Amino acid sequence: MADLWEYRWLLFVGTGRTIALGLSGLMLALVIGLATAAARIGGGRIADRLARGYTTFVRSVPDLCMMLLLFFGGQTLLNHVGHWTGWWDYLEINAFAAGALTIGVIFGAYMAESFRGAHASIPRGQFEAAAAFGMSRTQTFRQVTFPLLMGYALPSLGVNWMVLLKSTALVSVLGLQDLVYFATSAGRSSRNPFAFLVAVMVIYLLLTALSEWVLARLERRFTRGRTLR
Amino acid sequence: MPNRLSLSAAATALTVALAAPALAEGTLRVAISTGYPPFNVLNADGSFGGFDVDYALLLCERMKMTCEFTDIEWDGIIPGLLANRYDAIIASMGITEERKQQIAFSDPYYQTPSTLIARADAGLSADAAGLSGKAIGVQRATGHECYIQREWAEADMRSYPTSDEAYLDLLAGRIDAVLVDSIPGQDWIASDPAHAVFTPVGGDIYDTECFGEGTGIGLRQGETELREALNAAIQQTRADGSYVALSTEYFGRDIYGQ
User: Fold this and answer.
1) DSSP summary character for residue B222
2) What's the angle, vertex CA B135, arms to CA B132 and CA B140, rounded to 5?
3) Taking the C-alpha atoms of B247, B251, B253 and B258 in order, what is their torsion angle to the nearest 10 degrees?
4) Do residues B97 and B201 make contact, with C-beta atoms less than 8 angstroms apart?
5) Eight-state DSSP code of residue A43
6) ipTM of predicted complex
7) A116-120, A150-154, B1-5 — which is least confidently predicted?
8) Which residues of A touch B (CB under 8 A)?
């Protein structure tokens, strides 16, 4: 316990970084997911093919493998491009941005499937009613499709978020010092690994509990009036 | 005109980022991997310590450069070097043939033997017959794997991501022994009263083929200038006695070898 108390500040910093990384990754994943789902539902044949290729590829490659590929491979590619064009010697990809982007790209694929499934659950009558009211495409999306979509998608998005939050632990391989990184390093440095692992477990449990509370509230909000269906 | 101002600031920042050369003037970007006491340690205030870190600072001082440390997971340390995220790995990395195919090394800066650690009351003998069928833990992708495969082929070798997991399994009784570097090994025995039942078995093991020529600084291939500068700095620390002083402070003796 003494070791934990000694390293409390690092654990605190690590927790903050884990949360920040999780939320940035989530935002990116939601945007990518929505865009991909849109391409699959309303896009042309080429957009559909591309979106399908992306979700299939990303969902079949292990997260860790994907991260190493995007982060180190991406950096090496960037260096080569700079070398060939002579425009730059070395452009460093910020580890946090790279981590968030990688998580966004990976979980965007899962989000896309959640959105697509949710869209399929919206009763057709809703769109017909919107058309009957003379709503434009944008109006339909903002006032009819999106609120209904979120209601149907939220349980699945919530599951994705929980997995995403835990996947942030993998970014420690990229040199980003998140909670798990500080905990393993401190555990080894103080020769007391279990105390730190238990601390990580408790912190993640708290984060998950908080997420569940927020998700429950969001779900109540987006499924308001669903009984009227 | 706040917009214009921030835009030009962004432009300046971009130019600076673009102009940053691989080897910034006077800065040596060093990769370490904390969690390997007493060589690489993460202190409670977030700073780094250990023999490798202190020795890197000594070398930077000799080369009139500033050390800039990056703490990175062991598995990602070579990819990061190759991707140019830092210039040198000073993290107790053994000079082995396998690694030489990917990266270059400075001259060795220390050389310590390996040792087998087991329960004192287990009566294990460190030879092929005595270890036949015994479970021995090692850190994966190290010379220890190579040594067990060659010398104790009948033993049941278990590879772990780092030696810490091997120690945990040794404590749990799941394996009979671990093959590790002698200094961290003895440090581990001394670090906790519960570890006192374990002891080095069969003495020090030296083997150039598997353990390489010692521990060196990992560099990108082709960076001859940096390699020679580091080699010269290592020689300087030997000549002026600062190496021996640092080594004695940590280990009570000179670990340079030869």
Assistant:
1) T
2) 115
3) -70
4) no
5) S
6) 0.71
7) B1-5
8) 6-7, 9-10, 13, 68, 72, 75-76, 79, 87-92, 172-175, 177, 181-182, 184-189, 191, 193
CA-to-CA distance for B90 and A161, rounded, in angstroms?
38
B1 touches chain A (CB under 8 A): no
A181–chain B nearest CA distance, Å? 8
Beta strands B135-139 and B156-160, pairing class = parallel
CA–CA dist B82, A66 (Å, integer): 18
C-beta contacts of A83-88 below 8 A and 24+ residues apart: A87/B18, A88/B18
- Please give the full DSSP string across B166-211, using - where no structure is assigned: HHHHHHHTSSSEEEEEHHHHHHHHHT-GGGGGEEEEEEEE--HHHH
Beta-carbon separation of A79 and B83 below 8 A: yes
For B14-70, write each residue's pLDDT tens digit: 333 433 344 446 899 999 999 888 999 999 999 999 999 999 999 999 999 999 999
Residue numbers in B near A188 (CB within 8 A) = 34-37, 162, 164
Residue whose C-alpha is closest to residue A165's, from A13, A12, A23: A23
Stretch (H or E) spanning B165: helix B163-172
Q: At what angle do helices A8-42 and A45-60 cross, to 10 degrees?
A: 150
pLDDT of residue A227: 58
Q: Is there a contact between A188 and B162 if contact means CB atoms under 8 Å apart? A: yes
Q: Which residues contact A40 (CB under 8 A, 6 or more apart)?
A: A47, A48, A51, A52, A112, A116
Distance CA A153, CA B116 (A): 56
| Tokens standing for residue B43 | 């202190």
| Tokens found for residue B167 | 């120690």
Over residues A133-165, the pLDDT tens digits come to: 999 989 998 999 999 999 999 999 999 999 999
The pLDDT confidence band at residue B2, using thresholds 50, 70 and 90, is very low
CA distance B37 to A150: 50
Give the integer Cα–Cα distance in Å for A57 and B225.
43
